[in-house]
Amino acid sequence: MALMVPPANEKKRVKVYELKNNDWFDRGTGFCTGRSANEESKILVESEDQPDRLLLETKISKDDGYQKQQDTLIVWTESTGVDMALSFQEAEGCAAIWDFVSQVQSHLLALGGPDDALSDADMEPFPNPLHLPPPEIGNLEEIEHAMRNIATTVAGRDALAKFVINEDYIRKLIPLVETAEDLESLKDLHLLCNIMKMLILLNDSQIIDHIVTENVVFGVIGALEYDPDFPNHKANHRRYLKDNSRYKEVLSIADPSITKKIHATWRLTYLKDVVLARILDDPTFGVLNSLIFFNQVDIISHLQNNSNYLDELFGIIDNPEADLKKKKDAVGFIQSCCAIAKSLQAPGRATLYTNFINHGLLRVITFAISNKEASVRVAGTDILAAMIDHDPSMVRAYIFKSISEKKTPLTDTLIELLLKEVDLGVKAQAADAIKVLLEPQQPPPAQAQESMTRQNGEFMSKTRPQPQPNPQTESFIQHFYDHSANKLFQPLKDLEGRKSLVDITFHEVQLYNHLVEIIMYLSRTHQFRSKFYIFTEDLASRIAELLAAPQKHLRLTALKFFRQCIGLQDEFYNRQITQKGYFTKILDIVYATMPRDNLLNSACLELFEFIKRENLKPLIIHLVETCRPRLQEITYVDTFQTLILRYDQMQGYNPDADTTLFSNDGITTPNRTPNINGTRWQGVKDREMDPAEEDYFNGSDEEDETLPRIKKQRRDSVITNGVAISPMLKSLVDYPDDDDDAMDTSSSEPVERTIEPKLSPSPMLQTPPPERLSEKRRREENDDEDELGKLTTIKRRNSGPSVSSTGGNSTLKRKKAFVSKNENRDSLTDKGSIKKIEISLGAKGAAAEQGSKGDEDA
């Protein structure tokens, strides 16, 4: 059998849509044709702008599930599982392509084999054609049972949907609803409700489109009011939909099809969100959304292409003689159009806003947000928010134009709205609009919203790319600081001199919250201007007064401001915090809330924990020097004790070093010079030498020439790699580097044995007196001593605490220099390679014990 003849060659103007992430994506506008060649039939769409480019080329198959929705839509699913749609400009073009598709599918089904989805085997349980019992009161139970059995298979659902459409079965069921209500037959009403649910859940777009028509919708909705799942309750859907006061026509629309689509869209939305919200499955929900979306596209396209209608619509706002109610309805209509535009693709949304702006949309916003009625102000802020979300540069350009013309800019209107509005939603939208309009440069969409990024367990302001500044935007921002900022932050400046915040009102609390949030936003985006303004107006002190407010969330907002200032690690903010003494008020919150572990207390602790973790020295010094007694009293967390310890370490005082392992050897630890008059401890250079050291250095020895060098090394800090090492960190024994040449362990000659113990650093380090070189030489000359004895004597000399690698390297260098200058040590360097012996901790302890016994015997 030959393929069907394709439709006429005239091209049908159409838009191609693709479903991506439950949203219809516009692939472009073009001209649609149907073609048959080589036993294949295809639908082709050529681009309107580039005729050589194909927007769509799809092969028609028998199982793609083509559906015609309304008069201008064809929807189907590709073999890859992608949902596609064609939206025709004219119903005639849609009908021509649909006839072509239907003929091709009928031809393919006739050629299909036994594995076809609609084969005779699958259709065998159903008569051909399918019949249902006549729609009568007495047959309702039989109708429900038959429909339930038929709908169990895909083939049965398709056959049932075709039968219902062809026989206009729904329209025949509608009179039964009124009859059952007159008879007060609740059972029949429940049966009718179940039948209507099954028809809707067939997921057929033609059925759903038919249900929301003017003559059918009220009968279907009436049956759905009697839900058998709630037998004792009855809904009032019909009364709600019949309320004509909800339909407000600002201007009559000449095209009656657009009016029908507006009403159908309203009913579909109500059906989806209210009537069927509990029973909808995903396929039916998708069909309803698709019908709503394409209706909205047609409505918006008609409006923006009708320039005369837009002129009359926006002229209502500018007409001083127009009725106030009509102006209110006009604002509401424009609000609805902007809400619909959110679901459109970016090109269509941009076209709509451009047309609206050219006709005076921003004048409508100014009129709405300054209106006395709350509903009009809400509509105005909704329109403004939708525009700012789309492109704030358009709004900035309008504001800049108003400034150039010496008119009141929109920002001043928003500021007045923020200060006086009592509706919390409107107040929040006004604050957000002000922040977005003051953005120096609009970031990419992924960064459009103000955000904070947690880094290293810490909230830091997000780093944004700094593009080249726009001169117009810079001029607009400078005008804000020169003329508008004082008016915006005047409520905060009025806090100066206020004795108490106990009588603060709810309206003031919300206003202060928004103002502090705006200041935080400006401090992140306008770093130079905001710092200058905060300093000159002393806003930080006014925000600090909010730390004493009785409302916890207001205190938390003020605390968040100081937390951000510290997190920026800016010297300007740190200086402000230390000079004004804001930590005192933050500590008052800690004392008032500890140890309850609530949000406010935790936020305070996190602030001090950040100072400790980042080691912000100016803040630590100021905090401990001014509030040390109060910090010492907070012991349920260790943060404050650690801050005090950090401060003491910076001042050169280490309380852990007062008692050491050598405190029993008769060596007295020198006292640390305290911090007097702000002068920090200068090390051990100026300390008095204890008697034991005097006697040691006054004693005679053959190495007297080297004693001044040792004494100087003990008194001065060791410098290694540019880092000063405290005398307390000196090594007792000089160790060679690990990179020295391999040592010969087979030599039998007496050698100097260098021990490399593997010990963890001791927390308490004390500088021991240097060992007499003569005693060391006598021990090395004892060749008859066994190996354990050698280890014992070496261990005795190495019984001090371990030191860091830096200290070991520096002492090794000093040892090499010392040996090279002492001619009496030449014999040691000629005795062969040095042995390197490693001992375990257990052996080391035993060696130390035997070494101490050896000392007693000596």
Automatic annotation (TrEMBL):
Serine/threonine-protein phosphatase 4 regulatory subunit 3-like central domain ranges (all copies): 142-649
InterPro entries referenced in this protein's UniProt entry, alphabetically: ARM-type_fold (IPR016024), EVH1_PP4R3 (IPR055236), P4R3-like_central_dom (IPR006887), PH-like_dom_sf (IPR011993), PP4R3-like (IPR051137)
Disordered: region residues: 441-471, 730-858
Superkingdom field: Eukaryota
Alphabetical UniProt keywords: Nucleus
Main location: nucleus
Compositionally biased tracts (Basic and acidic residues): 772-781, 822-838
PP4R3 EVH1-like domain mapped to chain residues: 11-108
Subcellular location: Nucleus
Extent of Polar residues compositional bias: 799-811
UniProt cross-references to Gene3D superfamilies, sorted A to Z: Pleckstrin-homology domain (PH domain)/Phosphotyrosine-binding domain (PTB)
Family matches, as Pfam families: EVH1_PP4R3, PP4R3
Protein name: Serine/threonine-protein phosphatase 4 regulatory subunit 3-like central domain-containing protein
Native organism: Stereocaulon virgatum
